[in-house]
Design a protein that fits this description.
With about 700 residues, this protein is of the alpha+beta class. The chain is built from 19 helices and 23 strands. It is rod-shaped.
Amino acid sequence: VEERTRELENQANELLEINWRIEKEAEERLQAQAEAAHFGKLLNESAHEIYTFDAETLRFSNVNESAINNLGYSLDDLADMTPLDLKPEFDLESFEAVIEPLRTGEVPNLWFETVHRRYDGTHYPVVVSLQLTEVNGRRSFVAVLRDITERRNTEALIKASQARYQAAIELMPDAHVITDDQGRIQTFNNAAEEIFGYSRDEIIGQNIRVLMPGPHEGSEDPFTGRFGESIGGDATGARRYRGLWACRKDQSEFPISLLVQRFATDEGLFFSGIITDISKLQEVESRNRLLSAVVEQATDQIILLNADQTFEYVNPQVERDMGWRLEELRGKSSVDPDSRRPFAENYEAMYAALHADGIWKGQFRSKTRDGETVDLDVTASVLKNDERALTHYVIIGRNITNRLKLEDRLRRSQKLESIGQLAAGIAHEINTPAQYVGDNNRFLKESFDDIGTLLGRIDAMMDEDSDTIAKTELRKLLGDADAEYLQEEVPRAIDQSLDGIARISRIVRAMKEFSHPAEEKTATDLNRAIESTITVASNEWKYVADVRKDLDARLDPVPCLPGELNQVVLNMIVNAAHAIGDASEQNGNERGTISVSTKRLDEWAEIRIADTGTGMSEEVRQRIFDPFFTTKEVGKGTGQGLSIAHAIIVEKHGGTLDVESELGEGTCFTIRIPLVDPEETSAGTRPGQENAA
């Protein structure tokens, strides 16, 4: 019984121990299951994609939620899939080659980047960590993947930023050099190569001192700028220096401006320098100083106006001519009535032309600070920015007051010279009728003596006592007095005398009209003025040519300066006579023809003066209106006649003066004068003139 009891007790103890072990194993199993469940939950909820797939079949055995969500496949779909279905760049052979080191145990794990393909066909980059494990005798691969799309995007952005930065550095017009803290050159951009003459291969790694001229070699850290004068820094710590010199590969030296900044990286301390070659800048500054001196010392007025027509700059000549200083004008309007300009329409025409064509040339008058009138020859233009927007007006004016006075004197002098040249002919024209008027008067005086004797004898006979007078004696008295001859010649002599007086009066009247002293434009009978001028010039043409006139009787009075216009017509007729005279000598003294015509052409009065003279070549025709140009022999022409004629017609009358000519075929001058005085309108420039003002 005792043995049986001890045996039962031993069995009970064994059962208790077994139960304890079972309970402990159950507890451990529950704990392991809890930990496994927790670990599985962590893996399932991980942000990374986690895959397990059979080492033999490669089929997925487990895939976490992140993988399912990112791929777009269901868990059932993935159960029938392998990694090859997600990796478009792999086939079975290439994939086996990748995982072979894991199968053989050569490496414990693999890291590589690849691309996964989603259910919708899109791709995304991943980095893969792959291991081979064995559980319960079953070998499986465990892959942990991280989506690196954002990293790739960031890398792309960084790469693009670096590319832009590098491109900006390479496209800089200035040299960009980076050195380490020992002065060794690390980077050298395109501009640096061009400026210094070194290639990158030659210069990278060399000390920055190689770019410094001789006196500065051997000094430490030339990028500190100790050889120049600092002209300030900024919030980044960069400092700029002037007064430095650099040295090219060919050892030529040149002035530079240097901007230096220190910066630190994980690799150490570096210096970034931007080097500007200022030799050209100094040349530009020197040129600008020269141009400034030219502008300041120019004898022409130079005015710069802002887009709103306010004064920005005037040179000293404006003060010398007009009395206004820059300080008084800057910011003020050029169209302000206080500027004392009396002819506003000229300004309006100028600005209208500038806005249309960008340039304007002409003349107008202005007032000095003291109120004196000044005549100006003006050229105006506009300045525009890169967007073609108007920013400034540039006005260059020349004071021509004295020149106009001299020209007026010259015109008067030429008129007197013309009259002087015509004086002999005019004297001859007057002398001929005056001579036969005198001869006729002497004849009348002698005839009156005979008539007086006859009348005295008849009176004596009447006093005799005889009541009758013998016919024979009367016939004898009439015969002695030549009464029949006197009856015929005395009326003729009187008529000739009256005609001579009329011719003298006509010449004097023509001279008076030709020399019309009017200073202001007056409505003039153009035909009568031309008739007078033809008469005055008759001694020049009557021996070599005939004058044919075709004057339009319907032509309205023309606003003009009669004396000035007469001078132009006289010049044309005299030139025509001379040309015909030269042609006559060449052609055997044949008489030529001068044709003068007038007519109205729209709003213009036209005068045409043509001749059958020698004509002119194209080269001569191009220069015919140039001052002092003449084809006549020395002493026979000053070269001023046609130049002054052009100025009178174009500048004073706002008209046109054209010439047509062919060598050996004659010449035709065409004058057109507006029937409405352009100075009485504010209209723009008329055809054939730059400005009517």
